[in-house]
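Need tokens for this chain, all 179 residues.
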Amino acid sequence: MYIPKIPVVDYAVGRSEQLLSETIRKIKDLNEDAQLKAFQADLSSVESIIKFKDSLRQWLLDSNLHCSVQILINNAGILATSPRVTAEGYDQMIGTNYVGAFVLTKLLLPLLENSPVSSKIVNVTSFTHRAVTNLQVDEGTVSGKKFLSSKHYPYAQVYEYSKRKRHILDELVQATLYL
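Here are the structure tokens for all 179 residues:
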């Protein structure tokens, strides 16, 4: 079996330029030969995710690298104790923990499918998704708007819902890719 030899470059994506720089430095301290590229993106913003995807694609083309992604690890998440709204009108926790992962996965699917080797998607969640036993599927719950109007922001419940939705995303991606 022939396995093509392709250059491996790891991409770090995050909101904070400072934290990205620290992460790159720590990885380089452990492995000075690591090929790394940092991209700044806010996963609570669909616009920012689209800009990241465009930047990544352009960087791959400009670098003469194969225009593909071999592994996507959706690990971003927040636990907000007060209500915040994204530019798109989602509860920020749901926007970051679920909508952002969904949009990023959807936008990167062509690059994952273009990989010359088997590609993988890993959705990191937490055990808290198990606490959701009666997931409501309506606009208010999916967007988080239902929670924003609560007298006391139920942050634990919103976090649990956002993690359950990411778990469902994982199941949907698996079903879509393995039909």
